[in-house]
Amino acid sequence: MNARSWKVGNPKSELKGILDSFRTSFLYVGLFSLFINLLMLAPSFYMLQVYDRVMASRSVETLLMITLIMVWLFVTMGLLEYARSRMLVRIGSQLDDRLNSRLYAAMAKMALRNPGRASSQPLGDLTSLRQFMTGNGPFAFFDAPWIPIYFAILFLFHPMYGLFSVFAALVLISLAVMNEVSTRDLMKDANVRNIQSTTAISAQLRNAEVLHAMGMEPAMREHWLRQHLEFLRAQSDASDKAGIWMNLSKSLRVMFQSLMLGLGAYLAVHNEITSGMIIAGSILMGRALAPIDQMIGAWKQFNSARVSYARLEELLQGVPDTDNRMSLPPPKGDLRVETATLIPPGSQQPVLRSVGFDLGAGEALLVLGPSASGKSSLLRALLGIWPLAAGKVRLDGAEIGHWNRDELGPHIGYLPQDVELFEGSISQNIARFGKVEPDHIIAAARMAGVDEMIRRLPEGYDTLIGPGGATLSGGQRQRVGLASSNSHFAPHPIKWRKLNLSH
């Protein structure tokens, strides 16, 4: 899948469109940020009034009044901070709510296109993106546009104050840019290696029984460990470089604030500013530089969120959300295959060439052929799981891809070679986790010859099984899976036909 596979005529990505729908909420967050940053001026003006007015007049009443005003302003600022944080949390939750089902469907389609390479990484990317949006990182980006307010006030205090603050800001911004340039590729490499390591350990855990039985655990552990150590090395390199810029930025910011005090003292000695402006100027510059310092500190999270965003966008654009087609009548079962040619995903050679047959309702087809002759591939083509390179598969005259899967699925029984049951009760698995109808479930179990076995279990049809049917043997799982494939059908006479596949 490549980002170039985006739909023609859709310049705006689906993910960007969803984020754009929160534009009003982001505007409110920006408005709150404006008032919060204006209220952040309170400490500076409070110190200015204390040194220049209270200390000069020795008035306790004036001190009490301006202190009460400052407390009220800080309470207001705290409420605005809470409202801003709460709004970002709600945006993150709504983003997850809008995307989780869509991502599930996209991951399922990608699993069909790339068998054996399915991954739940997109859900992890969504979590990473949501956590960044609900953390402290965005506050720095929302506060940054108001930095000129602080600079303007510093220029009003004294031009030297303003020029020195601008110089300090440019130095810190340069550090932020160098941090981005030096860590971008390393962070991307670390993320790729993390996905590879996670995928490897997941595959090994799924096959733990085979690895243990064949004594492959040490070798596979070493194989995973090499990938994991490569990820740690890449992450450490990125973190080391980011740490250099972050610590340098923090040290310089503290130094600049101290130098600001020295500059203020020099100007006060020459009677160019008041003594209160010394402290107020240092506080203002610290506040002006804080968003830049925060951005550098949050750059690692920002990079991670940006990579997650890119992966999500690539997935959503590579697997577009197709609207449901017009509903078709319930299928009668007339199946027609017209010169079907199939190339499995990831392969260059076709496994089926110009295969064709007609199968009427009530007829059964026995497919014969040696290993790798395309029997399982034909079944996947009939179900519409793998698209044909040429030819058509028609059910009741309509192409198999023209049926809504959620409407066609209940009329199809499918038992793959590797039977996978899902965590829940036996009755739920037989009912395909739909409505549990006892009569239909028992009838399907009897058709599969598994009714008596189920009744002997401790809880009968209500027996809970773990992921993959861990409490059932392989044969029992197969028979429960067969009952599930029969759960929507009634027995009827079958007319058998034969198809022979060969190379």
Automatic annotation (TrEMBL):
SUPFAM superfamilies: ABC transporter transmembrane region, P-loop containing nucleoside triphosphate hydrolases. The chain crosses the membrane at residues 26-48, 60-80, 149-178. It is found in: Cell membrane. This is Type I secretion system permease/ATPase. Keywords: Membrane, Transmembrane, Transmembrane helix. It holds the Pfam family ABC_tran. It is a multi-pass membrane protein. Its main location: membrane. Residues 29-304 form the ABC transmembrane type-1 domain.
